[in-house]
Amino acid sequence: MTVHTESTSGSPAKVPIGAHPPDGGPGSAGHSPGRRHVHPAVILAVLSSASFLAQLDVWITNVGLPAIGSGVGARSLSDLSWVLNGYAIVYAALLVPAGRLADRFGRKAGFLLGLAIFAVASVGAGLSSDIWVLVGFRALQALGAAVLTPSALGLVLTTAPADKVSQYVKIWFTSGALSATAGPVLGGLLVEASWRWLFLVNVPVVVIAAVLAVRLVPNTRHEQDVRFPDLLGGLILILGVGAFALGLVEAPSWGWSSARFIVAMALAALGVIGFLTRSARHPVPVIDLTLFRDRIFSAANLGAVLAFASFSIMLLSAILWMQGHWHYSAIRTGLGSAPGPVMFALFAAVADMLQQRFRVRASVIAAVGFIIAAVGSVMFAVLVHSDPNYVSGILPCWLILGTGFGLAVPTTISAATLDLKPAQAATGSAIVSMALQLGAVIGISILVAILGVASSGAGLHVFRVGWVVAAGLAAASVLAALAISPRRVQR
């Protein structure tokens, strides 16, 4: 496997993944005239901030939805859901075009540009006073995240030592899981001051990451082809997924047989069909459909969609239950939500150890993990009661649920990205990330549709329906997991 880096003469030179170009080459991992060698682990730490930052705004916002609603005058859960879904839809649709641009025009430049856009949008979101203005800035945040995320992962893949590529990818991905650990607690703390800090807190993180990236991170690119990816295809995907989410979240108030719901679903279907048709015919498609001829890649993406749909239902429903029925404060809700993501991060490391030290097959680890996650979701439906019973109810459920997803999800993602060709590094990994975000949109939309117009005030029996649906999605992920064993042994 090789990557192209810019030589001092301006012509591309090929070097193995994980090997550093000759000293002085701008594409070298930490080598340039007058610059001391930078250890790949240091570069990994800087780039992992991108995964943390892009995911933090998903988790940190969940716990702050009630406060955001009060601040911008929005009471409807279907309206507030767009603070989450607007971000996820745009992020998902633009990840792959941004990944292609990063592959061709320079990943370091893409990383820095994405950070800048994200910072500006975070300021705008933090100063918003209208729900739809806020949603607009959330979409702009998603654009920044879509640019920086594949750029960062592409740089991880090309600066990692050859024998540690899989390990570095897992660390990079797990940093996103750590944002899920910190997000609810940090969100609860920030909301105590003001919901606006949920977004403004991004600015100092961006500044630090940008300064370090300028000084430490090398640049790489693969292709000299300057054709632009199919941005119109990305827009069609946004409209199609947006119509689907709109139809689901508004169906309880519109009516499931209403003309508006039928039109929304028809537009969604046309959008997806149009997107796939363009992707099959466009010379530089948003999604290279030939990637899905690979059984492992296809299975991993299906598993990612189902898993994140399930996890999104569980996280948001638990938050809404604790705040709406147990009347927990934002900080208490954040602390109460943290055990699941904490277990996710811990058992992601356990999954890696099982593969590296004991050579357990990825398909076995992922399948067992999804079964455990399904059990955790069912436990919510059985153990949680109207009277606050956190220690005997939600806590054990979170521990089991987080353990399952921690074993399954990073293993699935690693299997999908392990054998990508160098020129597909940013693009292929962006498709997997896109699947995660689409899963989140589907999960949140399903939950809002289940809760209906009662929103967080829906009864326990309604929440139980959501938890059972989440369990079903996790169980369905087992079938995808059985097909993800890599073609070569991970080291």
Low-confidence stretches: 1-35
* Main β-sheet, spatial strand arrangement: 1-2
Give the biggest sheet. 2 strands, antiparallel
Any idea of the CATH topology of the largest domain? Growth Hormone, Chain: A
| Secondary-structure class | mainly alpha
SSE string, helix = H, strand = E?
Answer: EEHHHHHHHHHHHHHHHHH
Q: What integer value in Å does the Rg equal?
A: 22 Å
Percent helix range: over 70%
- Class of the largest domain in CATH? Mainly Alpha
Task: Please count the helical segments.
Answer: 17
Distance between the termini: 16 Å
Query: What does the overall shape look like?
Result: globular
The CATH superfamily of the largest domain is known as MFS general substrate transporter like domains
**The CATH architecture of the largest domain:** Up-down Bundle
Compute the average pLDDT: 85
Number of strands: 2
Structural domain tally: 2
Percent of sequence in beta strands: under 5%
